[in-house]
Each structure stands twice: as structure tokens, then as C-alpha cells.
Amino acid sequence: MSFVEIEGVGKSFGPNAVLKDFNLTIAKGEFISLLGPSGCGKTTMLRIIAGFESATTGRVRIGGEDVTRLPPNKRHIGMVFQAYALFPNLSVFDNVAFGLKVAGQGKAEIARRVMELLELIKLPDLAHRYPYQLSGGQQQRVALARALAPSPRVLLLDEPLSALDAKIRVSLREEIRSLQRELGITTIFVTHDQEEALSMSDRIVVMNAGCAEQIGTPFEIYNHPRSRFVASFVGTLNALDGVAVGEGVAAIDGQTVAVPGLAASPSAEQFTLALRPESVSLSPRPEATNRLNGTIEDVSFLGSVVRIRLRIGGSTLLFDTFNNPASPPPPRGANATVHFAPGDLQVLESGPVVLPEAAE
Amino acid sequence: MKGSRLGPTIVILVAAAYFLLPLMATFEFSLSMIRGVWSFEAYRVVFADPEFRHTFTFSVVAAVAAILLGALLVVPTAYWVRLRFPRLRSVVEFITLLPLVIPPIVLVFGYIRMYNSSSLVPLTATAGGTNVLLVLGYVTLSLPYMYRAVDTGMGAIDIRTLTEAGESLGASRGRILATVILPNVRAAVLSGAFLTFAIVIGEFVLASLLNRPAFGPYLALIGTNRAYEPSALAMIAFAVTWACMVLMQSLGARPAHKARQRR
Amino acid sequence: MSAADDAGAAVTVRGPARWQGARLSWGWLGTVPFFAFAILFLIAPTAYLVVGAFQDATGAFTLDNLAGLFSPDIVAAYRISIEVSVASAGLGAVIGFFLAYAIVHGGLPGWIRPTIVTFSGVASNFAGIPLAFAFLATLGRLGLVTLFLRDTFGINIYRMGFNVVSFWGLTVTYMYFQIPLMVLIIVPALDGLKREWREAALILGATKRQYWTNVALPVLLPSLLGCFLLLFANAFGAVATAYALTGSSLNIVPILLYAQIRGDVLYNPNLGYALAFGMILITGCSNLLYIVLRMRAERWQR
Q: Domains, chain C, ranges and CATH?
């Protein structure tokens, strides 16, 4: 059952289109992330749902009601902004109470609801503080409580974590997710951070240049990226240049590997193979029947993990091994053989060529 | 949002009328010295008046002296306080803002009482001494603007690192101030200087009460005796103010832009 | 301890010793010129008058001078001064606010804002005698606007009671530098109104009016009051414009003080000091309040 329906939404500022024919249906209670680099149109989409921007084409429905032409203050939507946007002249209590007050609720009812929400965000003692007296993480939790207070139909989160410290970011993202599950509120989350999107979402919409490149669960998006863009934007990708040499067999730098599902190509077609770093290991495993030889170019010791860069002809392969106190990592310049399962190789649709370094 | 543009447009038009009408009226009046035709006769008369040239020159010299003295006082102080006594900064800032709190007429009243011919420092006993007092008074009046401009300019560059870099290369503090810091805050000093010039050039109260032959008292005299010349003089004063402000803003915009680029 | 540790320790010991130790004892000399200047030409002259306000002719302590300020003439002068300052500051603040709002949030073409800001820089410094000349040429008996209204619409503003050499004439003239000053200081405050506050209010269901009464105006209030006080002090201390416009026909405090300095019209020098003291008191209080309010406003803008 779809609760939010976005149908053919497009948006142009003058001659340049920032959103092109965007379609998405969101089920009630679902947590959806719009993930993409800056300028991909994700924030514009969110602002169209909120009503701050009007769509050039298409329509937005919430709970079956067409809200495309409705002003923002009639949409019953909650929104959390990147820069908190707490009202500086109001206390925490009054900030959270704002939506209830303008809705004309009674004083006792407002006080009960505000305290309930402050309990929920675990800041009941700070009700009479002012925003400038709070840390960034506290401000953002208050902003969340303020957005949730009037019991909105949909919650919009516009990069709510990107202004925070790394540690608080991780704890707050877990908090937001558990709160969202508890309340069962339909949530749309805009982010450029793939880790946030992967860890929080029911489904992810990967956006690029105003289009939805792929829509799917975090598992699908990460393991089965449909385009080179998605593969490179989500996670660290090894892009290997391959040539088809037979049915299910490709050559990388002259070394043949099994690629399930690869059609035989008479013209020795060039294509790109994707390989996740975590599917590669230095030691043989029974299912890892594919092998590649190369020279170790670089070894970075990152603590629990050792990251190794291997050169295979014209391609480089980045992969991680766990730190093992008993055996030091291989030295630079050494020859090494890596092992991986044929199913870990992914043939990418030809798409815009984005190197993983450039996407980071 | 499109419908709401009507209000702002009306506000702008009314304001434009209020601000431009006096300028148009003054200009028109200044051109009508000869009955029946428009001419620059009033300007010709003004420029031909030796008193105009004398008083204007006097005020220009006083303004330049006040600017130089003010820069000499403010730049090293702002530098030294930022470098060595950051805690004194709010005290110094407060003092530099005092000339905005104490009306100039009160200030000059105090000068006249403190530095009269029977006091310990009889500055007003001689014309030269009074000129010095006038310039020092102008330095005081310009202090808020000068200090603010220079202090902001120093805030935009990292004077501590620049100083340490200079010292590590063996330069003395004075040399660092003159050859490293000053060139970096030159735009700030100049923008403060133009504002000072605009304020001092037509200043009336200090010059009049200290009895100096400055441009301000000359304006007042012409105002009571002539009909068309005052309008011509008002246009000239407006043009001078305009030139100073345009120069100041064009200078003020540049260091800010540079600072943004660096970040 | 390794050699590297030694080097590090040496640096940390040498650093503070150089900055705070040997040089500090002479470092204060660098601030002497400034403080000497401030004391000699700013603080001492003012203090001289303040002390004098509490002394009689023999130098003994007295409150007679302050009591003397309550003579009808002087009270009337303070009253007109305060009225002109309040009127020009109030109108200047309100009109300046609308003008600033129009250029910041009015959605007007891009060239309007820099043009008006530059013009405000000029007009806020175009005070004194030339300004008086300009308004005499505009609204004087033979001024352009006066004649235009009389000849075109048959409205004789002078017969209706207006006179440029009067309370309203002076107020309208003062507004020529008050409005631009307001624009210059309130534009940053209006820029500080974040777009997200408006959007957050709207999405929470508030109307534009509710946003203004609950968020925008309370946030701007310290700035608005502060600006009003600054404009008030600005008008209160102005002499040249009023002198050139009205001569001595309008009895305001700065003009009275000017006459007192020139010729002791009060026949009591110490009463003159008290007059000056009263001015410092009024401009000082309004500026102090301005600073307090500005700090409050800045605290919110973070």
C-alpha cells in the first residue's frame, strides 16, 4: 500500500532541469533515503514534497490526497533541517510546542505532548534552555522533537546529521532510526553519506543528475549495483577492465576468470567488472575459485584492518585483510595472488564513467 | 512571492523620491543664479572666491594630518594589542567607541576648558597650537571608524603567524609592522581614511568653536549671506562625500574577497 | 627520554618564556601612546566637564548646577531636543527598516541592493551644513518642492503651518541621515534571519503572520531597539545641521550649549558644564543600552 506517491515530478530553473521525471512510491511507515552527490536534485525533491518549491511537472500525493498545489503550512509534514533551524528566541519547550500552539491546542495538552517528546529524545531536563545553550547534537534532537510534535503524516530529514561530529552522527542516526520504528512514521531522508543511507534505510533511492539511478534495499543497492555510478558511489568499488573471451569467461590482464551470466561475445568486447574489496582475500577459500596475480603497490596499516593495493596490468585492485599479529602484511613490490568467488564479480551496465576516487 | 513585490517596490520608490528630490532641488537652485537661464555661475563664483580656496585647503590639510596621525596611533596599537594583550582588546575597543557616545560639542567644550591660555598646556593660546588641537580633535572623532576598519583588517590576516614568520627570518618587530603587517592592512587603513576625510572636510562644530578658518565655518558664513552659492557648495560637498564613500567601499570589498578565497 | 622529546620540551619551555617572561615587562610600553591620547583628548576633557558640573565657581562641591538644569528654558531645550531625536530616530528606524526589508527580502532586481547600500553610506555621512542647504533649497520658502506644490496643486505648505525652520522641518531633515544609517545597521540583522526559520515555522503549520509575530520580530527586536537608541544619540548630539537650518530660532540643547560656549549666555560656566553633563548622560545611557541589546541580538544570531 503506497502512502506517498511521487509521479513524474520534474523541476527546472530556467533552462536547466534539476529533476527529471522522478517517480517513487513510499509505503506507510517506510524509511526511504535519497542518496546522491551534491547537485543531484535530492534536496530539491525533498523541498517539493515539503511545498517550499513547486514542481514544474508531475504531482505529489500523501495518503491519497493531492498536495501538489498545497502551501507548506497545510501539508501536515514534519521537517528537520541541516542547520537545526531552531527558533533562537524560544526555549526548548516553546520550540517543541510551536507547531501545537499554532494549531490552537490547549495549554495542558501542549505541555503533556511536549514533555512526552522531550522524554522520547531523552532531554526532559533541558526544557527551559535556549538553543544557543545546547550542543549541536542536542539541538538536532530538539529539532526532531519539534518536527514530530504535531504528529505529522510524513517526516522529512534534510541532511540532519552532516553538521555534527562523527561520533554524535553515529549515535544520533541509531536514535533517529529507532524512534522512527517506534512511531512508525513514514520518513524521507536526504543524505550524501552512503554509510548513513545503508545503515538506516528500508529502501534507498540513488540519485544522479536529477534522475533516480536505482531504487532498492540497502542490500540490493550495495551488492547488485545496476550502474557504474551506483557501484562507485555506494561503497568502495574496484573497477577492472575485462574482455569477454567466451561464455561465462572473461580475461583481466590476460588472466581468465569465471564470470557467471556473461554472454559469449565474438568481438572480444571490452567491459567493466566490479569487485567489492571485502570479497577478495589473500588466502585461498574453497568457494573462491577465481584467482588473479599482481604486484603489491601499497600497504596501509589501519589498525584492525590492513588495506592493500594490488596492480593487475592496467587495473588496480583495492582490498582489505584483517590484521593478524602472527603474520605481518606482505611487503610492497611483492607478487601476490588474490582469491574470490565468481559470483562476486558484477558486470556493470555501461553508464557514465565515474571513477571511485572521483566519487569519494 | 510575486504579488508581494508591489510593497517593496512602493517603499523603494518613495525612498528614492525622498532622497533624490533634495539633491535635484539643490542642483536646480545652484544653476539658477542668473535669472532666466541655467548656468554654472554659482559654481564659478564659489571657485573664484579666495576664501573658498583657503578654507577648503585648510580643511584638506587638517583632514590629511588627522588621517596620518590617526593611522600612526591606531595601526601599532591594534597590532600590539592583538599580538600581546588580547585581553585589552575589549577595553581599547570600548575607548575607541566613546567618541560616538560623547557628542563632539561636549568634547570641544572640554578641550577649550582644559587647553585654554591659562592652563598647563595652553594649546589654544597660539594659532599653531589651536590647529594642533583641532587635528587631535579630528583624530578623536575618527577613532571609532579608523580603529574598527584596521582591527577588522587585522582580523582577516593571521598577524601572529605573520609576526612569527618574520621573526624567524630575523626581522625586528618594527620592521615586521612596517613591511609585513602594514601592507596587508593597507586597504583597511585607506577605507578608514576616506571615511575620516568625509567626516572632517565639512566639520563645523570643532572648527567653529576653536575659531579656525576651516571649510565648515565658511559654509555656515556663506549660508547666512548668500542665496545661490550655498546650493553649489552643498553639491560640491555631496560630490566629495560620494567620492570618499565609493573609494572606501571599493577598498573595503577587496580584502573581504581575498579572505574568502583563502578560506 | 629520546632526543626528540628533549627538543620538544626545550621548545615548549622557550615559547612561553619569550612571550610572557622577559618581554612582558616592557611590552606594555607599546600601548602607552594610545592610552595617553585617549586620556588627554577623550577622557580627561569629558571628566573635566563632569567634575565641573558638580562644582561652584570656587570649586566647592554643589548640586546647584544640576538643579539649575530644571529652569524652564533649559528643560524646554532638553524637551525639544529629545522630541526631535525621538521623532527622527523613530521614523528613521521604521522607514529604514521597511527599506532594508525591501532590499533584503523584497525579491527585487539584484542591482537595487548594492545601489541603496552605497547611497546609504553616502547619505548617512552627508550631514551638517550642506544637508541644511539642501533642505532649504527643497522645502524652504522658495524651495523646489514648496513651489511645485503651490503652483501645481495649489497647496501652500507654509500656510498650512509647515516651516523648514521648525520641529518637523528639522525632523524631516535629520531623517536624511537617520534612514540610511538604519539601513546600514539593520541589513546585517535582516540577513541573519535564516530562511530555515521561516520554512520551519511554515511546515509546522504557522501562517506568515504567526511566523513574524512569534519568531522574526522577537529575533529582530533587540536589533531594532538598539538601532533606535543609536539613531537617537546620533540626532541628539547633532549641532551643525540644526545651526545652519534654524540659526538659533529652535531652542535645542546642542544649540544652547554652542551659544553658551561662544558667549556664556547662561552667565554661569558651571551651569554650562551641567548642560554638557546632561547630554553625556542621555547619549551615554542610550549607547549603553544599545550595546547591551546588540550583545543579546548577537547571541541569538550564532
A: 1-53 (no CATH), 68-301 (1.10.3720.10)
